[in-house]
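worker-03 picked up job from queue 'complexes'. Input manifest follows; two sequence lines, order preserved.
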Amino acid sequence: MTLKLQIDPIACTGHGLCADLLPELIELDEWGFPILAGSVPPALAAHARRAVNACPTLALRLARTRTQHELRTRHQRFFEIRGDRWARWAST
Amino acid sequence: MSHAYEQLTPGRRRAGLAARLTLGWQQADRAATLREHSGRFGPLRQQADGKRDLLDEVAAAGLTGRGGAGFPTATKMRAVAVGRGPAVVVANGMESEPASEKDQALLARAPHLVLDGISAAAEAVGAAEAHLCLPGTRDWLVDCVLAAVAERQQAGLDRIAVAVHELPQHYVSSEETSLVHWLNGGEAKPTTTPPRPFERGVGKRPTLIDNVETLAHLALIARYGAAWFREAGTRDASGTMLTTVTGAVSRPGVYEVEAGISVGDVLALAGPQAGAEAVLVGGYFGTWHDIAGIAERPFTAAGLRQADASPGAGVLFVLPAQACGLAEAARIMRYLASQGAQQCGPCMFGLPAVADDLAQLAAGRPDGDPLSRMQRRFGVIAGRGACRHPDGAVRMAASAVRTFGADAHAHARRRPCLSAQRGRQQTALLPVPRPFAEGDWR
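worker-03 finished. Artifact:
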């Protein structure tokens, strides 16, 4: 799973709190509006969430994106775990 | 600016010119009446192959949007047709691009062709209502279209009556989300996407928004079919297109040309001034180029992509030999900066900043290093607005710096520009309309 920062440019009024809280991924342009790094590394996920929650205009969002490979793997794991349980149900 | 609307008669046919949408314009200093229109094109329901429905026909014709983005029309129609609930059709006749006149020309002379297109599109996507959006600044055009709508109502021609609206005209008001926002009772400003209008538009229903020229082509495809449509144009750019050629040309105006003819051929129709070197391709969101470098390329999206250009709404503006390209670019940039919706920070502050940089450069009074400042700002501004307004404006400014590079460097070193050195006077040329009314978006 990849976390990605997204912004609603209409809602954003350039308070700049996000850049204070997450300077690793957000810098401000010369007019005080945030420039976002694309994806959020897992180590910074908690900080990113904090920045999202701090936004006074709720303009910053954290979107979850999964690659096709990740989706497939999740699907498989689901069947690995549930699969034999279902097999057991079937046999009882 | 007086414009000769080019017409075609077999005797006067010039290479590349075509007469489909413009058929019969030679007699016209007014709109075609319904009777004239039917005489010219025949009744609407007259498909070449009755078994195929209009969506397949449009897909086979390869019709693309003529408003600037060039999106495949059939794809958009399908998305709306499969959407939940009855759809809405919106015809976009805003034409807020100041260098373009083709939509006005079309609506003023062949309103019934556009209204036919709206009717056919509404039928094809199962729409329950249809709207036609026009700029409130052109009341003569509104009157003309309203007269045509009344004529059709009297004749009992359309299943759904087209509602004609007058919107405030700002550059970004013709953006499709602006139209939806306005029709839903809001201001004519772009909104955040998704949802795109084809998912959830007017009244939260799937909404098909097409440029009026696109709909006029659609009306002809509904009559004569895809094979006929493809008789003009090339394989990846089919049919004909309306173009507006202005600037330093002897016959400025609206020309209907076969898609796929070269930029040079389109320019030749209008007779460019001898000695003119640069052209603005695609309008105010377009790009500046040396005529020599781009003349051979086809005037299509695919043909111009390699040159980082696009035909936009079919606009070519030839820069006169005596004019300074940087000064023109600075004026356009100032205009575009003022025309934003003032919603997104990077656009609200970034565009005026770039306009200042360009103006300093053009005036030969640089404060610091406007060239490198601009290069940095170009990279930062694009892609950070809700709509594509900042992207287009920055693209135009960047192409000006690229194309008039020699001038730009001379200006930056506080020397007069090359065209000024040649001892010619500088004139402001591109039309920059006065704002509709400051702050009036509803």
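worker-03 released lock.
The domain at 18-229 of chain B is CATH 3.40.50.11540 (Rossmann fold).
Confidence is low (pLDDT under 50) at residues 1-13, 46-51 of chain B.
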